[in-house]
Amino acid sequence: MQTFELYLAGRFIQTNDVLQVNDKYTQVPFAKTFLAGPKEFESAIQQAEDSKSALANWPIFERFSTLNQIAERIQHSREELATLLSRESAKPMMYALAEINRAAQTFSAAATACRNLTGEIIRLDWTPNGKGRTGYVQPFPIGVVAGISPFNFPMNLAVHKLAPALAVGCPIILKPASSTPLSTLALAKILDQCGVPRGAVSILPSTRETGMALVTDDRIKLLSFTGSPEVGWYLKEKSGKKKTVLELGGNAGVIISKSAQLEEIITKCIVGAFSYSGQVCIHAQRFFVHRDHYPTFLDLMLSAAKRLKIGSPLDSLTEFSVMIDAENAQRVDTWVDEAIATGAKAVLRGNRMKNHLDPIILTQTQAEMKVRREEAFGPVICIEPFDTIEEAVALVNEGRFGLQCGIFTEKVDEIDYSYTHLEVGGVIHNDVPTLRFDHMPYGGVKDSGMGREGVKYAMQDMMEMRVLVK
Amino acid sequence: MQTFELYLAGRFIQTNDVLQVNDKYTQVPFAKTFLAGPKEFESAIQQAEDSKSALANWPIFERFSTLNQIAERIQHSREELATLLSRESAKPMMYALAEINRAAQTFSAAATACRNLTGEIIRLDWTPNGKGRTGYVQPFPIGVVAGISPFNFPMNLAVHKLAPALAVGCPIILKPASSTPLSTLALAKILDQCGVPRGAVSILPSTRETGMALVTDDRIKLLSFTGSPEVGWYLKEKSGKKKTVLELGGNAGVIISKSAQLEEIITKCIVGAFSYSGQVCIHAQRFFVHRDHYPTFLDLMLSAAKRLKIGSPLDSLTEFSVMIDAENAQRVDTWVDEAIATGAKAVLRGNRMKNHLDPIILTQTQAEMKVRREEAFGPVICIEPFDTIEEAVALVNEGRFGLQCGIFTEKVDEIDYSYTHLEVGGVIHNDVPTLRFDHMPYGGVKDSGMGREGVKYAMQDMMEMRVLVK
Amino acid sequence: MQTFELYLAGRFIQTNDVLQVNDKYTQVPFAKTFLAGPKEFESAIQQAEDSKSALANWPIFERFSTLNQIAERIQHSREELATLLSRESAKPMMYALAEINRAAQTFSAAATACRNLTGEIIRLDWTPNGKGRTGYVQPFPIGVVAGISPFNFPMNLAVHKLAPALAVGCPIILKPASSTPLSTLALAKILDQCGVPRGAVSILPSTRETGMALVTDDRIKLLSFTGSPEVGWYLKEKSGKKKTVLELGGNAGVIISKSAQLEEIITKCIVGAFSYSGQVCIHAQRFFVHRDHYPTFLDLMLSAAKRLKIGSPLDSLTEFSVMIDAENAQRVDTWVDEAIATGAKAVLRGNRMKNHLDPIILTQTQAEMKVRREEAFGPVICIEPFDTIEEAVALVNEGRFGLQCGIFTEKVDEIDYSYTHLEVGGVIHNDVPTLRFDHMPYGGVKDSGMGREGVKYAMQDMMEMRVLVK
Amino acid sequence: MQTFELYLAGRFIQTNDVLQVNDKYTQVPFAKTFLAGPKEFESAIQQAEDSKSALANWPIFERFSTLNQIAERIQHSREELATLLSRESAKPMMYALAEINRAAQTFSAAATACRNLTGEIIRLDWTPNGKGRTGYVQPFPIGVVAGISPFNFPMNLAVHKLAPALAVGCPIILKPASSTPLSTLALAKILDQCGVPRGAVSILPSTRETGMALVTDDRIKLLSFTGSPEVGWYLKEKSGKKKTVLELGGNAGVIISKSAQLEEIITKCIVGAFSYSGQVCIHAQRFFVHRDHYPTFLDLMLSAAKRLKIGSPLDSLTEFSVMIDAENAQRVDTWVDEAIATGAKAVLRGNRMKNHLDPIILTQTQAEMKVRREEAFGPVICIEPFDTIEEAVALVNEGRFGLQCGIFTEKVDEIDYSYTHLEVGGVIHNDVPTLRFDHMPYGGVKDSGMGREGVKYAMQDMMEMRVLVK
Predict the structure, then answer these.
(1) Alpha-carbon torsion, ordered B140, B145, B151, B157, to 10 deg
(2) Is residue A355 very low, low, confident or very high in pLDDT (cuts 50, 70, 90)?
(3) Which residues, 6+ apart, have CB-to-CB distance to C409 below 8 Å?
(4) Which of A128, B233, B370, D102 is the most buried (most CB within 10 A)?
(5) Nearest to B432 by CA among D6, D129, D204
(6) pLDDT digits (tens, 9 = 90+) for B124-139
(7) B–C interface: beta-carbon pairs under 8 A
């Protein structure tokens, strides 16, 4: 059984607190690592603090070179990293490989972004007392950053914190999900070989309690959290004087308008609905379909869902596998039961066994049902009809979330109306909300979070502007 | 008869060379001004040169205040200025008033733009030898600017040179069209009252020969010309070491796609076709209409053109009046004769008398006919059918011009395809190419010119970047 | 006695809870207004929420016109507004007039800034799956904004919240300090006359308890607070799901280096030290002087401080008057006593009577003394020597605040070193930290706050980016 | 003898017109290539035109990958490429290697820059008729680009045209100097292996006459020329309807102020003065030294110049070798003779033999002497004293050139005054004007050229903005 050491400010260490990591498909432990304790966190924070100045002065040519090297090594080890990721998360290999590719791309985008760190010169003679005066506005690294990342993209969502921090020149302490800590610890080895300054990065799995040090310690200037809304908003409250960026989830909607070409979109819709069993922040959970298309769309989705290849995540052909754990499978199943009990109809529903849960398609749902109102984070979708684009947009806007939305339409006025009125961070034209490019701004409004990631956007929150009035 | 003095570097002067200005509708002289000679140009250039440094150091709060005051005074005198403009150009009052409004708006946009003059700070440590080095990139005024403006928008097209020059801090010498010099000379009085630094502005009507000083003199660093393609490209050749911005004309196209709603667009099309007798750089000259709409569109345009209220430009209800002079009316009429002689069909054609020429609608034209290939700059349009959007775009792209194009469509793919493939400076969705906002980038490709105007865009060509490596 | 009504979503109202406002110099009530209660806050928040969409769609030309009109009317009523401000705050007229000018300028800057609201188009084909895809990133108003503003700049620090909110298109509810509510209520009348959309603005003095609705209500999306560090950080903790911008105070430092010309800088230093009795967020509290200059600087400051014209704030020649209230005067006086008791030496110290407190100059202070460590917000300064620029910068960086710093030097390496190493939001070359231009980024690091104001910078926090992937 | 084939739109070809290339140090032919004739130019232009659309649609991920690959291969072959460059140009290996490094860096900067191609979204509702309208401004490739590059940096100055063109998506035809065509033809092989689209690039040495096709052909939309002022301005006149960017030379000045530390700057000054025998556009030709430093500086420069290691360029220790040809050596020598005949004094002067010319230091020169007024482009410098910074700046500004200037000073006011008043494209603080970073804006004012290079700056001239009004 392979052992993964923690990464503490540039050293690989072990603690007395062993953490067994299960293969989520076989449910058998296949690797071990450790939980960091208060001592490790204190050490990480202090060493990060001590390395602040070195990081801030890390020249761009070295940052650029290091970030590119990391991207290349990730790419070079992609099979190996994807296998590890697939085992610890039960993510089908095709998606695990895609995630590793994206992690490499995220580092590459950070390399580009660090070259783009620029300042602004403004004229101050807008008033007589500013005559002869000029303002020089430049960004400075904010200081120590803490990242907390979730299980569902154990590599790339962590990289979306690590890569921007390095690009800006901020030390960072990352707490990966304790169910899937291995991908980032494997990444730690790559970081370590590519010239990341000593002290700059720590990767420390821990209990949630111990990890609260990252939330409450005042030496940390930014907390960047990706995870569930409940936890996220709670952490903001406890975050003291630090900035917080919250990348939370939602119950993303999709609009299939009258002008959509159904045949061409089903593949995208099925991927948005069931990839990684819907355990995706921008999982396409609510489909709103123009009434003219409604019956056909339902049929097409049903047959496509039935064709999904279910099996072991390590099989390269597998499209759908198990969920992260039995608790979540049960939670989703219970929500579905509740929905059916209050009037919803299951067009498709298979069995659940432990953490195995088959794709589920519901109709006749109501806004207040949990499967529609809450973040399902599981393989369940709701498909409902609408009559006008205004109605469709209102349906997407119901409730408290607002991350992304997809809309399939060929009409200028429909896309314009939707973009203007959808209360979300991103509108995806002719694709599902599940689409994300790693260098685009990404993040939610309403209860889906605050702040934006997407490398250069994440970097903005990691900097403080300082003006020189000369 | 009112006398308008020349404006020479902050003084109003007269010369021995009197220029009578006709009321273009009555053909009777109604005002007089003067032609500047070589001596005046030399004096203007030298005083501009001498005032360079003062202009460059003109504080933003004063520029802002002056530019805003000018805008307000123009607005305050709009009736009077529009009447003058209408008389010297035969532009119907409704359009003359709109032009005066726009001139005020252009100065207001320049006031905003002068506050936005900013620089950029770039990091130079992309390579080891740049470690610790920073680049400060700031714009400096290019020096003396020369503007040559045409008769068709005697006020606003001159203002598109004057206002940016003042916003940047460049002295400028303007040569207005000698057929319509009065609007800018009236403007000179406003400039003079609003605190424009002495020496900064000269407005000098002259013969074309004398005016060549502005093209050939090496003290002038930028020539900004708006006028005909033939003259423009000739001036570029003669421009020596100076930069040139050429805002020339074209034979703008309009695409009416299958998804357009004909009833709603006819008013816009008629304005694009016949406002100021087509003497507009972005006159909608070539209409390409989806074959399904073709007969109806032709009918609607024909009846709408017949309803145009023709009369004296000073009448507030007049929509259509005379052309600038008999030569141009005759030229257009001859082109129409030629077109008909080689196969075109006149759906609408009235009489010509002196500079009076009625609206003309042609069909069955060919690409090589002058009415379609050249810039008509007169009240003639061609209406032709097409079958596919690709064909429509190819028709617009035929020939050597590329200024703006209008496209009426409700389909996303049609607007995307058109925007990507039309060889023009601007694509106007659901309107005619004749639409222009004064703060948007405006200018043509191919033989329609080089460079862009639109206040902040015009200002870019009036500045040189200077980097400080520290 | 004049009555000022509250401004509730476009209507002027009274409540049963009368608030007497004292003339701070005479200590006699001179006007009355009202305290808003929970009902008024609920109404304001709901009407703000209801007007969100109208505000978001408020066209730029109307915003621009309204913001400019407000600026002009403020300018037009400057004497009257300054007198009111002077009476309610005991701010000397020369400074009150300057503040009114600045408030007009802040609205003018907001007019400019609303025209500059732009978006970004990014290419998404950095990866093969982005081929043919483009990202359109545009800002949208964040929703309802709450502003809480302090007594010391009762007009302009409120305007720094109101003007940006209107420029962005966000409804705003402002709670002014209850000791100085009149300036903003006078401003409300101007806003009301200039076309601000109904429901967009409420101005509600209240008790601190009632005002907590602005902090805790989830319909409000941004809390912008200017005030004391203690209150600010507490409010952040209570702010729920909303963003917070905190403009807090500090104990700003000034560095007088060896190359400084003492004679030329004393006037600036005295203004930075004692204007408005030091009740300024960027009050120059700690002077660090090169040892060679130390004795002379002390002498010069002493005699200049003695020359300050002390008297009624309404006297146009008065440079120094009373503090806001007796409690604060006593607090400062006590801190000075404590400092002297533990070794500090008072070079200058007069008497205190009620809210009257004379200028105080201390030397031989220690880092841990309250007069040096805390925000004095009173007419006391510490003057200490240093030997090297590194030492001077370290002295400024001691402690927990970091707002602005002034440095007087003629040497390139000193200004570069200082700018790079000072932990502040702004470094002012050859002036005191008390200098601020209303359109420059302004805000602190460390305990001095988070986020930046300065119109366009304040606006950024009032917007959410929304990406359209096409 | 190695043969280098021409590169014609993606194919390597030979012509009947053989061009022998001398080793410039031994004066013996060491390689051969060919001259392109009118047929080759016609073919290159037409194929470039035909590939325009493919280039414009070349996805960013492929451009990025290709540009990075090119950078890596150049780096990988740096010894080999530097040796070739050294032989064809007599550039000492230490400088040849540096140039190859920079060429790789320029391609890397272009890779970064192609990801940064973005557009702008502007609001059009500044006026009522713009209500609901938005402007989308995006850059499009201008079309076919022609580059003409000089002998002195045969690789990197060509790369400054090739790399930006590929980053933008413009086909490019490059005419390298016929005395040093080999470096770019060796580069052609690398381009060919790295996925540059067929037709995108041609590299064609030719006679000046034949090469005029690049200047006069209307299918070419941009001429980017680096070379002598005389040729450059002549080409602008002949350039027809195309844009021109001219990177010409100058007689760059250096200011050594009173506050400069002489010992630390001599090495930089010697490199600026004599690297590659002064055959550098930003060769430090005129040194202006504060009178207090003047005698010492002269001494230090004299002894440093005498210590220069002179020899074969292929020797890795050689600092100074021969000039490009005997004609130029003789020209410079003659100018020196003339200067001495009219009063200048030679502090250092060795012999000339063929293209060998020793370093020359002159004093007591006059503004009108050719060694000071014209671009020497040879190993001669003038050293003169000054008394005030204003005088020094005026001396640098004398004459018709304005490329870059170096200034050594420790005083804020001197660097500010110089930056503001020097009529140049770049001011280098505490270094010689010879310093250039490949991603910074680079280019001259006055007779030194028009436009800026520096990858992203060069790219701006290779694009046309197109606005979509929606």
Answers:
(1) 10
(2) very high
(3) C255, C257, C259, C260, C389, C415, C418, C429, C430, D412
(4) D102
(5) D129
(6) 999 999 999 999 999 9
(7) 10
Burial C353-377 (b: 16+ CB within 10 A, else e): eebbbbbbbbbebeeebbbbbbbbb
pLDDT > 90: what percent of chain A? 99
Distance of CA D446 to the CA centre of its chain: 17
Q: Within 10 A of B233 (CB to CB), how many other CB atoms are there?
A: 18
What is the reported pLDDT for A11?
97
End-to-end CA distance of chain B: 62
Residue B207, pLDDT score: 97
Residue D74 neighbours by CB under 8 Å, 6+ apart: D81, D100, D103, D104, D107, D187, D190
Instruction: Say what the pLDDT of residue B350 is.
Output: 84
Contacts of C122 in chain D (CB under 8 A): 118
Q: Is the pLDDT at B450 greater than 90, yes or no?
A: yes
Selected residue of A105, A241, A427, A438 to mutate for chain C interface (largest C Cβ count, 10 A):
A241
Q: Which of B126, B447, B469 sits opposite D241 (nearest CB)?
A: B447
Whether residue C115 and residue D128 make contact (CB cut-off 8 A), yes or no, is no
Q: What share of chain A is helix, strand, coil (3-state, %, to 5)?
A: 40, 25, 35
Chain A residue numbers with beta carbons less than 8 Å from the beta carbon of B260 are: none
Q: Does pTM surpass 0.95?
A: yes
Nearest CB to C112 within list B112, B416, B439: B112
> In Å, how far are A20, D308, D356 from D303, measured between CA atoms?
72, 9, 20
pLDDT at D1: 85
A257 vs B: CB within 8 A: no
Neighbouring chains of A at 3+ CB pairs within 8 Å? B, C, D
- The answer to whether the beta carbons of residues A301 and A324 sit under 8 Å apart is no
Report which residue type is found at D387: D
Classified as helix, coil or strand, B160 is helix
Q: Rounded to 5 degrees, what are φ and ψ at B176?
A: -80, 165
**B251 pLDDT higher than 90:** yes
Residue A132 pLDDT level (bands cut at 50, 70, 90): very high
Whole-number average pLDDT of chain A: 97
Question: What single string gives the DSSP state of each residue in C276-344?
Answer: GGG-STT---EEEEETTTHHHHHHHHHHHHHH--BS-TTSTT--B---S-HHHHHHHHHHHHHHHHTT-
**Residue D187 burial by CB count (10 A; 0-12/13-18/19+): exposed, middle or buried?**
buried
Parallel, antiparallel, or unpaired for β D445-446 and D28-34? unpaired
At B1 the pLDDT is: 85
Chain A CB contacts of D115 under 8 Å are 109, 112, 439
C-alpha span between D310 and B275 (Å, rounded): 75
A281 in catalytic set:
yes
Residue in chain D closest to C63 (alpha carbons) equals D126
Q: Which residue shows structure tokens 């230490």?
A: D94
SS3 D102: helix
**pLDDT at residue D212 in the model:** 98
Cα–Cα distance for residue pair B91/B183, rounded to 1 Å: 12
Binary contact (D123, C130; C-beta < 8 A): no
Q: What's the pLDDT score for residue C350? A: 83
Mean pLDDT of chain B: 97
Confidence of residue B304 (pLDDT cuts 50, 70, 90): very high
Phi and psi at C177, nearest 5°, equal -60, 140
Give residue for tokens 């400057």: C78
Contact at CB, A241 and C437, closer than 8 angstroms? no
Does C330 score more than 90 pLDDT? yes
> For tokens 């950024």, what's the residue?
C460
- Which of D100, D440, D442 to mutate to test binding with chain B, by most B CBs within 10 Å of its CB? D440
